[in-house]
Structures are given as C-alpha cells and as structure tokens.
Write a structure and sequence with these properties.
about 130 residues, alpha+beta, Sufe protein. Chain: A, 5 helices, 3 strands, about 20% strand, globular
C-alpha cells in the first residue's frame, strides 16, 4: 500500500470514525489518556454470551494516528475473545494501518486504544 493511500485511509478513519459514541450498558467502560501528547479515549464494549466482543464504541480526541487506530481497532476486535485481544500488539496495529512502521513518537498514539481495551477487560475481570 502506498503511503498516500495509507494517509488517505487514516484521514478517512479520523474524519469518519467507525463506532464513534458510547455503549450503554457496557461490560467494559474505560477512559485512558496519553499525557505526553494529550490524546484521550473513552472506550466502551459489550461482550456476548459466548464471552467474545459483541460491540465496541469509542469517543475521544487526539491526533490522526490515535483516533484512526481507535476507529480501526473497534472494527477489528468484534468477534474476538479477551485472550485474543490480549495477544494483539503493535505489529497488528501497524498492519491494520496499512503496514506502516510508526516512529517511536507515534507508537503510544497508535497503542492507546488497544491498551485501553486490554485494561478495560482486566478491570471487568475478563483478563488476568
């Protein structure tokens, strides 16, 4: 994927985020921020009877990378188990974002929503 196409995809997710909003009631409800750059996310998720993620929504503010990653993550985790989400890492986030290798300064931005999801699952007693 060319860098222009990658930028276009990120900007589309930034301007038209998937699953933007708040789920009520939610099994997972967490707010997390990245104090170094000011990115903030509020992530809510509902689990199905089978224990898999049934739906996820987020709201927040931040840079293109953090908001686009959150939008893409909400699409990617539906149907996954908490254990599968716990296995996710930066490589999978970069792959979702078109295979781009992020600079060190952008890694925390890209991982904000994934870290929030994992912590939210822990807080809800769904992950050890």
């Amino acid at each position: 994927m060319s860098h222009d196409l990658y930028r276009e995809q990120l900007l589309d997710h930034f301007h038209n985020p998937a699953n933007f909003g708040v789920l009520e009631p939610a099994d997972v409800d967490i707010e997390m921020d990245n104090p170094t750059c000011g990115d903030m996310i509020h992530l809510t998720a509902r689990l199905g009877r089978d224990g898999r993620i049934a739906s996820v929504m987020f709201e927040g503010q931040g840079c293109v990378v953090s908001m686009a990653a959150a939008s893409m993550l909400t699409e990617a985790v539906v149907g996954k188990t908490p254990a599968e989400i716990d296995e996710m890492d930066l490589g999978q986030i970069e792959e979702m974002m078109g295979g781009v290798k992020l600079s060190m300064g952008r890694v925390k931005c890209a991982l904000l929503s994934l870290n929030a999801m994992k912590q939210g699952l822990r807080d809800a007693g769904r992950l050890a």
